[in-house]
Write a structure and sequence with these properties.
429 residues; Rossmann fold; 7-stranded mixed β-sheet; 4-stranded mixed β-sheet; 17 helices; 11 strands; 44% helix; elongated
Length: 429
């Protein structure tokens, strides 16, 4: 039984005071407890604890995972700007050298918080994980587990992604060509510019056999066929994506130019193609499988042909993006510094010819996605429920900050298979 104290409304100041030893200083944001009391800075965002359950979850997991679980379930909320709250929390904890928060650390450094939790009935067993949290089984990066991981993220529903993305349905960084302030260019035109840049870099022309590895919702496959006359094969392991692209292929009369397969990249065996691209898919293959991935791309392209990989990079302790990303968004993802990726590509037998950094372009792309998402908030909630909608709000805000701060990057890596006649291509940026 949960017994809640009916003491006077002073919980927020008491919770804030009890957290000082753990946080090595006062709260960086305001705090409002379920009894209506408030503590912390008067200005700026306010963290709202809606019930004793919120405190209970944070006692069990006071770090990123517990906070994100409490947010997506609605046990905690943020009044004001979520991004500002995250920025303040991250900057303050970094400045104070606070990291590695755990239940054990909390018990040692904040015993008064434990006592207060007991008083208000917040102690108890570990709360269940939210229903939307990934639960994968099987060997890491086996074919079956990879299909489950991709399905968790990409098979949410095509209708959901239509509420987020541009008409191309491009789920990767755009290229804001000649418009650093994003004032004269729409997201759709930025994605068109990115797609055209890729086609020029790999030298597509009428009749080129082109392999699109991890083709998403078909933005590049369709663009290459419609604008460059390429003969396109796209591979994906997401059923919803294949169904979506197949419908667009029929609508646009491209059945003779575009074939989409429900196929893992490791199963591609009908090369060589004239050119190959893989757009923000390499993050999902895993560290151990990356050499095999690079080798597959090499074998898939003809001697002299070009391979373009657009891929996110990350430094630090969490190559998967951190507990929130790994649990709710993209389980089993692995990112690394771009230099390490270049080494792996070259070890796979490709000659890297150009690395094109695009980090700031992802900031602008995510800003545009966030604007669309918030505009469509009511429709998103109706479609997928508030829990999933809150996950994506947190994801967009947090990932935008990661690119803005330089904790993550994205690059187009152009490489070539040795031998064969030179292929005419364009590296203009």
């Amino acid at each position: 039984m949960l017994i809640v104290s009916t003491s006077s409304p002073d919980l927020a100041p008491r919770i804030a005071d009890a957290l000082v030893p753990l946080l090595r200083g006062p709260l960086p944001v305001g705090l409002r407890a379920w009894d209506g009391s408030r503590a912390g800075p008067e200005e700026g965002p306010v963290l709202v604890l809606r019930s004793p359950q919120a405190l209970r979850r944070l006692l069990w997991s006071p770090g990123e995972l517990g906070v994100s679980q409490a947010y997506v379930t609605g046990e905690i909320d943020v009044q004001g700007d979520v991004g500002e709250a995250l920025d303040l929390a991250r900057a303050t904890l970094a400045e104070r050298g606070v990291s590695g928060l755990s239940a054990g650390t909390l018990a040692r450094t904040a015993p008064r918080l434990i006592a207060l939790a007991r008083e208000v009935g917040a102690l108890g067993g570990r709360p269940e994980a939210p229903s939307s949290q990934a639960r994968l089984r099987g060997r890491l990066h086996s074919l079956g587990r990879d299909r489950s991981a991709i399905s968790h993220h990409y098979d949410l529903s095509n209708a959901f992604y239509e509420l987020l993305l541009d008409p191309h349905m491009a789920y990767s960084s755009g290229w804001w060509s000649g418009d650093p302030n994003r004032t004269q260019q729409s997201l759709e035109s930025a994605q068109s510019a990115k797609l055209d840049l890729i086609c020029r870099k790999i030298g597509l022309h009428e009749g080129s056999r082109f392999l699109d590895v991890g083709c998403g919702w078909g933005s590049l496959s369709l663009y290459a066929a419609e604008h460059y006359g390429a003969q396109v094969t796209g591979v994906t392991i997401a059923k919803e994506q294949k169904a979506f692209i197949d419908a667009r292929v029929r609508e646009r009369g491209l059945q003779d130019r575009v074939e989409i397969r429900l196929q893992d990249y490791r199963e591609v065996s009908d090369g060589p193609y004239d050119a190959v691209a893989s757009i923000e898919m390499g993050e999902h293959v895993g560290q151990g499988n990356y050499p095999a991935y690079a080798a597959v791309l090499r074998e898939a392209v003809k001697p002299g042909g070009y391979v373009l990989i657009q891929q996110m990079s990350r430094r630090g302790r969490h190559p998967g993006g951190g507990p929130f990303i790994e649990s709710f968004i993209a389980p089993d993802m692995h990112m690394r510094p771009v230099g390490e990726t270049v080494e792996l590509i070259e070890a796979g037998g490709l000659e890297v010819r150009d690395v094109h950094a695009m980090r700031e372009h992802y900031v602008w792309t995510i800003d545009a996605w966030s604007e669309t998402f918030e505009k469509n908030w009511a429709a998103v909630v109706e479609l997928v429920g508030e829990e999933v909608a809150r996950i994506w709000r947190l994801y967009l805000v947090g990932s935008g900050q990661a690119f803005r701060d330089g904790r993550m990057g994205v690059d187009q890596i152009l490489s070539r298979r040795s031998g064969g006649a030179p292929v005419a291509h364009d590296t203009v940026r």
